[in-house]
Amino acid sequence: MVYTPTLCFSCESGVTDSKRIVLGITGGIAAYKAAELVRLLVKDGVEVRVVMTQAACGFITPATLQALSNKPVFTDMWDARVSDNMAHIELSRGTDLIVVAPATADFLAKLANGLADDLLSTLSIARECPLLVAPAMNRQMWDNKATQRNVAQLARDGVVILGPASGDQACGEVGMGRMLEAQQIFNEINSFLQPKLLAGSNVLITAGPTFEAIDPVRGITNRSSGKMGYAIARAALDAGAKVTLVSGPTNIDVPSAAHVERVESTNEMFTAVKKHANAADIFIGVAAVADYRVEKTSKQKIKKTNRDLNLKLVPNPDILAWVAALPKPPFCVGFAAESQKLHEYADAKRRRKKVPLMVANLAQDAIGADDNEITLLDDSGIQTLPRAPKTVLARQLVAYIAKLYSSDKTRIS
Questions:
Q1: Which pLDDT does position 399 carry in this prediction?
Q2: Number of domains observed in the structure of the chain
Q3: pTM
Q4: Cα–Cα 20 to 30 A to 42, which of 244, 252, 274, 285?
Q5: Average pLDDT for residues 308-327, to the nearest whole number?
């Protein structure tokens, strides 16, 4: 089953329009995290219907989930609020996704063996939409061979398994079985709902700053945080692409599904890009690459004196121009951070380097920030994506790249 919702550029998250999710909660201490998950989903504009097992009600009350979701909470197979008394059928119809968090060992066993003895297990089996489960249990229960068989069977059946993680557990032990945090599950839901516009594509991305050494302790760098590059890597993964991320020095968590190569200098980044460029379908040069490096790096720390220090700088290789000039180049996207004459300078850069798309922004507004405004320049003209979180802009940009890339493939073929 291929699930492809419609992308909505106008909504805050950039995910889908009119999302509807059933959140199932089973009886584990991690049920308290479900309250935060509901809050995050509702804040994102999702309609959440909560279904709880009787055991779950012993850990968190339906009243709490009803207050957070602004919807009735269902616990009973025979709930009279459903006109035909078939809540197990009606609740899943018209739903984009069912998520069970936490999913206990008992519930996973039911699903894997087709058992349906309460509302949540029955509607999970009678569904017409994808099912995601976030396991939560003691480490020994998780490691039990029966649990592992059940999880493997669910994966074969097309159920998406989120986690678990390793960490402190309520029993006082430490190990695998801890449910993912609410924010992590929310991120996975958002990722799952993205249209797979780049399915089957190999995307090569550079991100972050570069560092050009002067001596063992000093260097030339810039204030790029890498946030936009990493957001684009995440968005490309969510769009179904295989992503290789060549990253300069950053403090950002790497998307788990990306292949990452850590580099420091521009030459190191260039070497990594050359290694992967021929296999790439799309190249996105987001990194703030240093234009110059010191001609001769000192092997020892340069001692301070009262005299001027003169450093000879030489040009670094132009990575984007090199990729664009390959005999069979990938679809190339460049970034231009300017401090003035944004459209003029960015379009000149696009034409000079012969790339089909240039993404431009004012450096003083974007570097280090969590949000941004970007301008897209290609052969069709200029359009601006209004200021928004970089995660939102990244998804909008990836959708635009996918459209141009698809047109480019059609034209070439």
A1: 95
A2: 2
A3: 0.80
A4: 252
A5: 96
pLDDT at 144 over 60: yes
The 10 Å Cβ neighbour count of residue 368 is 9
CATH code for the domain of 27: 3.40.50.1950
DSSP 93-132: TT-SEEEEEEE-HHHHHHHHHT---SHHHHHHHS-SS-EE
Q: Which of 259, 284, 145 is nearest to 207 (CA)?
A: 284
Per the residue annotation, which of 8, 57, 171, 332 is the catalytic one?
Answer: 171
- Predicted confidence (pLDDT) per residue in 191-228, tens digit: 888 889 999 999 999 999 999 999 999 999 998 999 99
Tokens representing residue 5 in the block: 């919702």
CB contact set of 238 (below 8 Å; sequence gap of 6+): 190, 191, 194, 395, 398
Instruction: Please confirm, yes or no, whether 171 is among the known catalytic residues.
Output: yes
Q: Show the domain range for 85.
A: 20-192
Burial of 250 (0-12, 13-18, 19+ CB in 10 A): middle
Helix (H/G/I), strand (E/B), else coil: 337: strand
Beta-sheet pairing, 20-25 with 47-52: parallel
Same structural domain, 346 and 212: yes
Last-in-domain residue among 192, 227, 249? 192
Residue that the structure tokens 């050494």 belong to:
213
Residue 376 in domain: yes
How far apart are alpha carbons 198 and 9 in whole angstroms?
17
Closest of 51, 6, 26, 15 to residue 186, by C-alpha: 15
Name 279's Cβ contacts closer than 8 Å, sequence gap at least 6. 202, 204
